[in-house]
Every structure is written in C-alpha cells, then in structure tokens.
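Appendix C: a fully annotated inverse folding record. The material below is reproduced so that readers can follow the format used throughout the book. The structure is listed first as tokens, followed by the designed sequence.
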C-alpha cells in the first residue's frame, strides 16, 4: 500500500441558477436607482440658483436683487418685508435693515421673498449670537463702520471714533448716514447736504441714526462689538489704504486738506 495520503476536497455550496439570477436582478436595480439619483442630483444642482448679498448692501438693493433672482415684479420683496414676521429685535420695528446678513443663499423652486428674508435674518441672528452681540445699537454702529472703513484693518478704529464722539455728545458727522438719507453713495458731501432734514443726518442731529444704514458683515460687527482702546475723534481716508486717525482737530483739518487736494487732482 502506498504511504501517500490524498486529501479529499468537498465542493462548497453553490448558488442555484435561480439564486444567481436574483442577485443579478438586485444589482441591476441598485445600479438603475443610483443612476437615477445621481442624475436627479446633478440636474437639481444645475438648476439651483443663488443670491449673493455683499457686505454693506442696503435692504433696498437686496430687495431688488431678490426680485430678479425669484423672477418677480419689482417691489415684490420690499412688499413682503413689510408683512413678513421676521425674528427681529423690538427696536427694529419690523425693519430688517442691518439683519440681512451678507452671504450666498440658495434659490429653489419653493423659495418665496418671505422665506428668503427669514433665512437671511436667521443667519444674521446666528452670527450675532456667535459674537455675543445682543444690542441693536451695536448693529447700527457696525453698519456705519461697514460704510466708512476703507478696509477691515481700520474698522476697529472707526468704531472707537464713533464711541468716543457719542461719549462726548459730539455729532458723528458721518457722510455715509447722509448718503443713506438721500439714497446715494458718494464721497462728496456739500454744505447743503449737511442741512438735510432727516434723522439720518448726523451732521444736523446728535447721536446715532434711528436704524442701521446697511447690512454689515462679520468684520464690522466684531469691530463694533469690541473696538480697540484709543482717543481718536476724527478720521479721513486720504487715499486707498491710507486712513488717518487723530484726536487733534488741527491735524485732522490738515489731513482733510490733503484729501481734497488729491480729489481735485483726480485722486492722484
């Protein structure tokens, strides 16, 4: 007899023909479902629109942009804003100016002016909560900071100038608030402009304007919420990137003269 031992291999379990057909059918169904879902997702993304709110835009500008994005007649979003129950502080008296947070928002087939505005305000409230800002006054200041500061690095100092002038009962004399009252944006403010009878004329009336003058971004809100220490009372942006802050009025007048001279020479 041979000493060589043979190992007997038992055949493993095999799927029946019916079982294999069932597996193939299930896999085919899964593939079809996956293709349908991916196709639908790609189609939805291709059709999805967005609305971008830049930092410092006024509510009126946002309303007009929203009307176009939603393919609605002009004035539709402005009208909705008056009737929408938005989560605003009592001081706002239903006016969302200052709380339409700058960001990019999705526009879907079921988006309405009211739902879009609500989304913006809720986003703004979330950012305010993250920065621990609870005061309407701070949002008003932030809106002025957003309009007046030449760059984010200057925002804290601009906020401090506002606080210092308010503490001394000095009129703010901010051109940006007059621009808001007159519905414009310009660097040139005339003596006639400073006599405008509007509560937003901070040359004529002491204190803050009654509402924010735009919708400030995160940098302006942080600056208004925690401005740096300083004694500055005046500032002027002589040229882009060159904003000069001072507590000395005569020095400020010198800076203003330099700004005016540059403007006469075309800003050069």
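Designed amino acids, in order:
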């Amino acid at each position: 007899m041979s000493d060589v031992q043979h190992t007997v291999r038992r055949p493993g379990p095999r799927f029946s023909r019916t079982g294999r057909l069932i597996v193939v059918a299930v896999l085919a169904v899964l593939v079809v479902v996956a293709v349908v879902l991916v196709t639908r997702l790609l189609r939805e993304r291709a059709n999805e629109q967005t609305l971008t709110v830049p930092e410092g835009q006024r509510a009126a500008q946002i309303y007009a942009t929203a009307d176009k994005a939603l393919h609605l007649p002009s004035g539709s979003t402005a009208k909705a804003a008056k009737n929408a129950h938005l989560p605003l502080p009592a001081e706002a008296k239903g006016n969302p100016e200052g709380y339409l947070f700058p960001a990019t928002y999705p526009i879907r087939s079921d988006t309405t002016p009211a739902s879009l505005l609500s989304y913006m305000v809720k986003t703004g409230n979330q950012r305010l909560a993250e920065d621990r800002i609870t005061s309407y006054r701070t949002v008003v200041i932030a809106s002025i900071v957003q309009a007046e500061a030449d760059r984010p690095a200057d925002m804290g100092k601009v906020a401090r100038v506002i606080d210092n002038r308010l503490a001394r009962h000095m009129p703010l004399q901010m051109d940006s608030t007059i621009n808001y009252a007159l519905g414009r944006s310009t660097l040139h403010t005339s003596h006639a402009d400073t006599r405008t009878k509007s509560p937003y004329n901070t040359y004529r009336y002491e204190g803050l304007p009654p509402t924010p003058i735009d919708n400030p971004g995160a940098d302006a809100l942080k600056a208004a919420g925690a401005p740096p220490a300083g004694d500055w009372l005046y500032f002027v942006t002589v040229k882009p990137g060159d904003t000069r802050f001072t507590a000395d009025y005569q020095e400020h007048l010198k800076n203003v003269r330099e700004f005016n001279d540059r403007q006469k020479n075309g800003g050069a």
